[in-house]
Write a structure and sequence with these properties.
single chain, alpha/beta, eight-stranded parallel β-barrel, three-stranded mixed sheet, 14 helices, 13 strands, globular, binds beta-D-fucopyranose
């Protein structure tokens, strides 16, 4: 059965940050620091999904999706990131999973969508190799409670974005600007992924995936310098996270003068077979030769295409290009793909024709890729609800359903009705 779903993440929708024993996450800390997010927005309340989840499941049922990708907040399960589980945190996810199953919706939880317990950040976060082991212990706790009902698991969300934005550039939590010195964060997340796969398998998990943010990389010109820079960017954004998982090797990083602490056996752990690759696609990236900011490339931006409200270029064919490119690069080593996020921010109207055009174009590109022989098994729209869009706070609206953040009123947009009829033409 092809999975059609919507995707969300814990910190972006749950709110209830001090309830039922939840610990502090790096996003609580970061969003409360002056100047970190637009207008100082925080996820303190967000969509209040922690209390309103039955209404949100009803919205999914109304949409006609058969799957839901959400994330589990590590600090709800282990408030300080290690040690004893907090039963009330697990109870919440159990209620959610049971509610989804009752509605005939397949739960697809992600174990880490960027909300690291602050107590682990105080020990270095993902710069510290120990975090990999702690992550696996957390995975075991969650799987122990839910794996009788959850069949599909995603370990990490977008380890590239978490490394680059959180530790490289400092625009996301934990707000460190280490540039290429952030590279150990890649290895420690991937090691955490591999150790979590072992824990999930030991609990009987049927399907385990990782979700990577992938982008087709376009050189700014045909010049040698632009092509070399595009290659460097492709290495850091795409291959650094796909190669070790799928091939058991790291791409050559020696040109960047940074070493990762890769120990004997690590790559065997990281490359344990997966049942699928989660791919998040938003847009291609156009790259030119470096300037002198310490990075081996320059992001040139893409012109000549429509843009979303966020200013991101709308390039539906990039999804086909990406999928065919992954198949060509990895061949038989590529497991089935799930598009675990795709969607756009748009003006805050109910008649969101831009979003309909975005989704229509991307679903056509998906069909093309499948017709070209790429094995895709699922597609999840980002997002069900308007939510806390990280550094942009509530200013970027990605929802099929509008949220009024003063009243928490949810109102389905035109794209919701459009998607419903696209998913089940006879029902509408
Ligand atoms: C992705 C994130 C997701 C959301 C979308 C717009 O990078 O995984 O949480 O913010 O971007």
């Amino acid at each position: 059965m092809f999975l059609w779903g919507t995707a969300t993440a814990a910190y972006q929708i749950e709110g209830a940050v001090a309830e039922d024993g939840r610990g502090v996450s790096i996003w609580d800390t970061f969003s409360h620091e002056p100047g970190r997010t637009r207008d100082g927005h925080t996820g303190d309340v967000a969509c209040d999904h922690y209390h309103r989840w039955p209404e949100d499941i009803a919205l999914m049922s109304g949409l006609g999706v058969n799957a839901y990708r959400f994330s589990i907040a590590w600090p709800r399960v282990q408030p300080t990131g290690t040690g004893e589980a907090n039963p009330k945190g697990l109870d919440f996810y159990e209620r959610l999973v049971d509610g989804l199953l009752d509605a005939g919706i397949t739960p697809a939880p992600t174990l880490f969508h960027w909300d690291l317990p602050q107590a682990l950040q105080d020990r270095g976060g993902w710069m510290n190799r120990d975090t990999s082991q702690f992550f696996a212990e957390y995975a075991a706790i969650v799987a122990d409670r839910l794996s009788d009902r959850v069949k599909m698991w995603i370990t990490l969300n977008e380890p590239f974005i978490h490394m680059a934005y959180g530790y490289g550039l400092g625009v996301h939590a934990p707000g460190q600007a280490l540039l290429l010195d952030a590279l150990p964060v890649a290895h420690h997340q991937l090691l955490g992924h591999g150790l979590a796969v072992q824990a999930l398998r030991a609990s009987g998990a049927e399907q385990v995936l990782i979700t990577n943010n992938c982008t087709p990389v376009w050189p700014g010109s045909d010049s040698e310098a632009d092509r070399a820079a595009a290659d460097a960017y492709d290495t850091l954004h795409n291959r650094l996270f796909n190669d070790p998982v799928l091939l058991g090797t790291y791409p050559d990083l020696s040109a960047y003068g940074v070493e990762m602490d890769v120990r004997d056996g690590d790559l065997d752990v990281i490359s344990a077979p997966l049942d699928g690759l989660g791919v998040n696609y938003y847009n291609p990236t156009r790259i030119g030769a470096p300037t002198d900011d310490g990075l081996p490339f320059t992001d040139l931006g893409i012109t000549g295409y429509p843009t979303t409200a966020f200013g991101w270029p709308v390039v539906p064919d990039g999804l086909r290009e990406l999928l065919v490119g992954l198949r060509d690069r990895y061949g038989a080593a590529l497991p089935p793909i799930h598009i675990t996020e795709n969607g756009c921010s748009a003006k805050d109207t109910l008649d969101d024709q831009d979003r309909i055009a975005f989704l229509d174009g991307h679903l056509a590109a998906l069909d093309q890729a499948r017709a070209d022989g790429v094995d895709v098994r699922g597609y999840f729209v980002w997002s069900l609800l308007d939510n806390f869009e990280w550094a942009e706070g509530y200013h970027q609206r990605f929802g099929l359903v509008q949220v009024d953040f003063d009243t928490q009123r949810r109102t389905p947009r035109a794209s919701y009705a459009w998607l419903r009829s696209r998913l089940s033409p006879d029902a509408s």
